[in-house]
Fold this protein.
Amino acid sequence: MKKRRILLVQYGDYAEALKARDEGREENYRAQFYSLDAVDELVQDGECCVICLDAGPYEVLHGSYTVYAGHYEPQTHGRQYHKDAEIAAERLFDVAKSFEPTHAILRAPGWVLTRLGRKLVEHGVPVLPLLADYFPHGGLKNWLRNKSVVSLLNDERIVLCSNHNRPACCSMKAAGITPEKIVPWDWPASHLPEDSPPKELTHQHPVVFYAGMMLTEKGVPELLHAVVLLHERGIPVRAVLCGVGPDEKQFMDLAQELGCADSVDFLGQTANSTVLQKMHEAQLVVVPSRHEYPEGLPSVIYEAFETRTPAVLSDHPTFVESLRDGEGCRFFTAGDESSCADCIQESLQDAAAYAVLSETTEAAWKRIRCPVAFREVLLDWANAVEHGTAPRLLEQSLAAEEGA
């Protein structure tokens, strides 16, 4: 059989991740090294070209991998953004043509999927969209925004498209993508809720924990404002934030401006083991994502439940479609710092109710688990396109689940 030549396009610094794994360092986020191992298994004795959209610039050779990074993501807006996206897609396609891939995996939505994906499909390259993104739907604006991606993903030459967890997959269906080819995927469980005892509310100085990108759309400003409101109400909450991103300095300045800097710890990029330790120590995990952020189902929610730490979540569509208020979590109105503060206060003011929230994190965790793992999607899809058969995993498509 012809050796595989895998083209992988995604965000993040892949070369640094490979180096960290080889050096025995800790992973920065859940399943980071698992995903590298899965791609290794896919590549076998072939080659892999990885394009990192937001790292670099560099070109690195690492065993059977060639990793390109060049800050391909456009930084403009409006019409200029679309022009720059087309230029970036041409740059990416030039790299792809020179590599001559037998398979292409696109782990980025938006212009990467619609522009580069279309070019690859038209040149006969099998394409797997492997996403972790919510598709806004409903209304003319979203219909226009989704028109290109729906057309591409419904193309018969794309035999399978996969998204992280069911709500994100349901959003694809609602946007107009045929459910027969949509397969929900998940990371394998690295920890189990049963490995940690339920928590009791005994701490006099409660800690709320955030882990994720430092982005305004992730709702971090609401959390900082909520800390101030809680202090005004006599609740000495402390916020611990892990993660990096373009708005990190802005958030540090905001904490100073609000007068809560002494009650907020910005830990920056931290190892996943440290994240889990901080969750164990915290009383609540807060995930304040705004509706405009295209969440799949972030790992921080799984990890909160695995450490038996109740979660305070915004009412992002992905969250409310997956979980039940009062079962391991509570919901507040996204973008509303008063609602966020109220939800944190209510979760901390009653020890018995808190104990129920912690006890039911196991049920909440089971509710969001999906049977298909990331590795399975890669291997099943690649085998199917090589043999000209339908992917076996279509038996677990969204349509198959709904028809069961």
Observations:
- Residues 177 and 290 are 24 Å apart (CA to CA).
